[in-house]
């Protein structure tokens, strides 16, 4: 059994669950494909996580990856029809609901910090609903209120494409995250509405102007669930030092992304990325924002991760590398679990009940 309890800030496992797709795998049974299922999560010490609901386009783009002399860029993704997005999000939400029911108490939907703590105490796996990209949200926010009533507690305004609320960053390296306009007026109203409801706002995938709009407008801590440092790996998905300072100054959190092409200085998609380099990158973030503001945002089932970790069961290898890099037991506990609960408490505490 793993020694360190883990709450993970981001995974894409719902996309691959048998309850959602006929080609999916049984989350309750250990698999060798993908990164995450309940047995491997438990082997790695995971006590819960944010589970992303994410809508894709009706037509998958072809030949959208362009290799450049110094790196890469991915052609900007198309917008997604809101009605089509809602159908996907509802199907994924119901898939998780069915899975939790089928788990026989081994998994629980958590809607507050007490719920996460209770699940941990009773050895149940806590699931927190996260919406990655708000395409499914209508302009009157009716669907947002329905999702909140169903347990949604975290929302990313955009994925890496435009929507009615703002503009996501196109995937590219090397490039600045300053890639387009800021939030729309309705995007700003979405921020205010999330603040009122106590829904955590996730700035992952958001471009830099949008980031600063949220930082200026929101009353909650600045949170990015899965990203790394642009100063080390200058991809559009990573955060500049100024953005990291905004997280520090608002007492927010950055979830460290295990995606190798956002960790490596060369931006390469190579899973032989050594854990020493991973630990150094985490150390940079901690030195910039403080050990209370860096957590894990693995992107399991949504990224290429270091081979030495392999999947959720390999998280103890990451923590061992961090120990060798100078992290003590207290700082490891903060990174692995405590920092997420701290920022949830700051974000959710004054929200009305669902």
TrEMBL record:
GO biological process: proteolysis
SUPFAM superfamilies in the record: Metallo-dependent hydrolases
Coiled-coil regions, chain positions: none
InterPro entries per record: Metal_Hydrolase, Pept_M19
GO molecular function: metallodipeptidase activity
Protein name: Membrane dipeptidase
The species this protein was found in: Rhizobium chutanense
């Amino acid at each position: 059994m793993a020694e360190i309890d883990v709450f993970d800030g981001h995974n894409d496992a719902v996309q691959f669950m048998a309850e959602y797709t006929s080609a999916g795998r049984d989350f309750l049974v250990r698999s060798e494909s993908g990164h995450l299922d309940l047995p491997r999560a438990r082997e790695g010490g995971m006590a819960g996580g944010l589970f992303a609901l994410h809508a894709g386009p009706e037509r998958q783009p072809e030949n959208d990856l362009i290799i450049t002399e110094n790196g890469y860029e991915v052609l900007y993704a198309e917008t997604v029809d809101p009605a089509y997005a809602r159908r996907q999000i509802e199907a994924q939400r119901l898939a998780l609901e069915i899975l939790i029911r089928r788990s026989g108490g081994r998994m629980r939907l958590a809607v507050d910090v007490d719920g996460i703590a209770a699940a941990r105490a009773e050895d149940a796996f806590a699931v927190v609903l996260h919406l990655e990209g708000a395409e499914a949200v209508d302009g009157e926010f009716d669907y947002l209120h329905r999702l909140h009533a169903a347990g949604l507690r975290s929302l990313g305004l955009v994925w890496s494409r435009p929507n009615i609320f703002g503009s996501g960053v196109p995937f590219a390296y090397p490039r600045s995250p300053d890639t387009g306009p800021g939030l729309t007026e309705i995007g700003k109203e979405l921020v205010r509405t999330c603040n009122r409801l106590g829904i955590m706002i996730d700035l992952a995938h958001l471009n830099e102007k949008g980031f600063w709009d949220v930082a200026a407008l929101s009353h909650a801590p600045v949170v990015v669930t899965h990203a790394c440092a642009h100063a080390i790996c200058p991809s559009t998905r990573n955060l500049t030092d100024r953005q990291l300072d905004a997280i520090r100054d608002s007492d927010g959190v950055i979830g460290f992304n295990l995606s190798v092409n956002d960790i490596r200085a060369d931006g390469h998609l190579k899973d032989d990325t050594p854990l020493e380099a991973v630990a150094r990158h985490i150390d940079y973030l901690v030195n910039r924002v403080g050990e209370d503001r860096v957590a894990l945002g693995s992107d399991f089932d949504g990224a290429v991760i270091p081979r030495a970790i392999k999947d959720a069961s390999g998280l103890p290898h990451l923590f061992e590398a961090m120990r060798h890099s100078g992290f003590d037991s207290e700082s490891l506990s903060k990174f692995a679990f405590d920092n997420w609960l701290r920022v949830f408490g700051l974000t959710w505490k004054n929200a009305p009940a669902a």
